[in-house]
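Notes to self after the call with IL:
- keep both proteins in one doc
- input above output, always
- annotate only the second one for now

Protein 1:
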Amino acid sequence: MYGWGGRIRTCALRYQKPLLYQLSYAPTALGLLNRLLGAFQALRAKIYEVFFPDTEQSEKQRRSISFPRTADTGFDRLVHNMVRHITAITGIIKAMAPVTTNRTGDEIQRLIDLMSKLPGLGPRSGRRAALHLIKNRDMLLDPLAKAMAEVAEKVTECSVCGAVDTRDPCSICCDADRKSDVICVVEQAGDLWALERAGAFKGRYHVLGGVLSALDGVGPDDLGIPRLTRRACDPVVTEVVLAMNATVDGQTTAYYIAEALEGCGVSVSGLAQGVPIGGELDYLDDGTISAAFRQRKDF
């Protein structure tokens, strides 16, 4: 019978080469670390099978097993070999790390870094976009720089509805042709722009700037809900449309606003949810189909 040290030494000698064999296929540092983790987990499982071949324990119990250190040097050799392998792997990771040599000017690199932070863009697409702007300097780069400078200087938030514009009050709030008896509540300015593109709403807007979130510390005062309540209590207003996103936070915010508007004497409605135009039932999720059945109407 082998002692504790002998058993561990046997497992180590048996699975050291497969460990390095698996690591040799890692193309990147991240893949190397993932394979290292998987290899050590496999080694732990093999050691467990040697020590406890006839027992059944949960994964949590397996992780809590502590192997006693005895006078046998097998355990010391295992630790020494593991440290040696980890040291070698660390050297490989450092060698595989890309050399961050800046082959462009600082100004161009700063432009690439800023472009990479835009939604939908990454480092590669940011470089392509920056290169396209540089190649079309007269047609794109200079006009874009001027437009961004003007927007950065003049952009402001409407004190009435919270929309983003270059004037206060915004263009929609100053439009005398808009209906003043209906207010549409949206989460972000992008939602307002989407409704305006559709041309389906001709009333006033109220942009919250987000949704209620206890985890993020966003409360009613942060979203301007008291200001919405004051606007809704105006005798001219007869209806408030809650055009919130069909998410958990969006619907929670909509329910909160509906309760806050109960004493204003206005009609509170929400956007219909269900089958989209051109959609097929076979491709819809269960929640959308259920919402469509609940909100069915006479044909």
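Protein 2 (the one to annotate):
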Amino acid sequence: MRSSLLCPALVSLLCFASDTAAASSARKPKKGPLFTFGVVTDVHYSARKAPANNRYYAASKEKLSEAVAAFDRAGVDFIVSLGDLVDNDAENYADIAPILDGAAAPVVKIAGNHDFPAVAASEEEVGSLLAAQGIRERRFALRRDGFRLLFLDANDLALYSHAAGSTARKRAQRMLDALTREEAYNARPYNAALDDEQLQWLRRELDAATAAREQVICLCHMPVVPLLGKYTLWNNIDVATLLAAYPCVKAFLAGHHHAGGEASYGGIRHLTFQGMVEGRENRFAIVEVYADRLEILGFGTQPHRTMEFLR
């Protein structure tokens, strides 16, 4: 069973504020951002795949190196991968691991649909493959400077994340079949859903954040808006409605839809980052977190954004 506790190793790694640090911060208010983090998503690195449909798989290695160098120069507090570091072949990760391991800041990763093997494997095999990519916690929460960052697992109910014939795979197929009958835009096999267990975990985290008077930023490989979007979670409306019910939730950051995009729903700012694998130009960002907004510093084709909180 996945733990609903904060990930101790990551909390330690990212040096999240202690009571002493919080007291010091109260005595000396920071004029700049509370903290910053770099973002990459949909790297889709593959040494084998030839360019196709404007996707340059092998070129992503150099792009990732460029992004990490920019993060190092900026002195970000940590780096986030929003998923799809590789393209359905975990063996490719060995080529880019030294880039991430050599970053000055710690790297936090969540899984995307392409981080799983092309042929669905057993739970044990999937766990080993993800761990080899440094993805050991499928979902977790991190706390810092009055914020709670909730890293969601977009792959609970999916055709690609469970072996054929498994109970979870059958549940995912039934869900996709139902959406297909409804002619839902997001009835696609490369999308997935949060399961009931994770939704309960999410509610507990949101309740805890509310009690602690923390602001919440959600991070997930798959977006939840637009509500009738093609690249969203299968149960995006349920998730979006749940988040809108908690005023502590300020922003939702995602990848998966390589074109990127920005929207607002239920008092929450939503941003989908552009996929690095697309085109010859690079695409990544640095997020500056302030008490009242996020400043998105885009690189390459990723636009700059000021995302003022709506509530």
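Annotation: The chain has eight helices and twelve strands. Residues 33-308 form a domain with the Purple Acid Phosphatase; chain A, domain 2 fold (CATH 3.60.21.10).
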